Description:
CATH architecture of the largest domain: 3-Layer(aba) Sandwich
Number of domains: 2
Strand content: 15-25%
Amino acid sequence: MFRFAHIEYLWFLLAIPLLVIIYIAYSSWRKNALNRLADNHLLQFIFPDVSYRKPFVHLTLLSLAIVFLVIAIAGPQIGSKMEEAKREGVDLMVCLDVSNSMLAEDLSPNRLTRAKLAMEKLVDRLHTDRIGMVVFAGKAFVQLPITTDYAAAKMFIKTANTNTVGVQGTAIGNAIELALESFDYESATGKAIIVITDGENHEDDAIEQAQLAQDKGVVVHTIGMGSEEGAPIPLYRGSQQIGFRKDRGGNTVVTKLNEDMLQELADAGGGTFVRATNADAGLNSIFDDISKMETAEFGTKVFTDYEDRFQYFLGISLIFIVLDILIGYNKSKWIRKWGIFNVKQ
């Protein structure tokens, strides 16, 4: 298994586009300044040994050196020893609604972002439990199979958005069905499903699936995102709001929390319904119920030893730096002979 000991340092790779932009701006300014001084033929006569293409070579070498240096600083590691670790906990599947109605801003900053922030806090509270995630709109699919890899769970939570599922709608039943298929029923560990949605426009057998879950010993909890008064769905172009979503008749669409359906869904699944607010997304109280469930010991393969591999990337970076120094900026004799960097007349 490959990992970074300090993955946050990879943000420094954003310096590469900035470096390219600075180079382009400087090259454009320099070219205009030289053109005001003399034409190309006269410049070749005045500066016969100056290469006009080597700066691009230096930029390429410097960029590659920075890339490998940043990777080295981030601490690349390879798992060298795998052992089976014994854990004791419950299995938890979270079904997250990513339909357009989750962009309504009756929760701050919007329903979906509020739900994702709450899920990240939930992951922080997990220690030996396993977690998975199903995303749904008009269709559902497993975004994260059940796992103890909490870093991966957070990554998938961050990337979930309204473009994750191409079909609009609210297929809660399909989401619960996929969540049920993700559990290992040979294990005696407690199992629970948390459905996070506004419950609007649900279009399948959600109640029947919740009852089926309870028959299998799986508890279904629901968290309602939104308000009964509802809110319009904003439309953005970049960071600029350009209006609100409208129906075919040209009327602004107002999306409301379907609290009655979510309460019925939780009742059918033997769980709890909680309405989210800006102060509390509801996961804390549900997690308290989950923590009381029966736990069971299970084994999972984990890497216990990692070996550093930063030295390889650091070495490659130094090679590019040395090449950058050796090349220089003027035309060398053999380059002038072969005309590699000559400007075409």
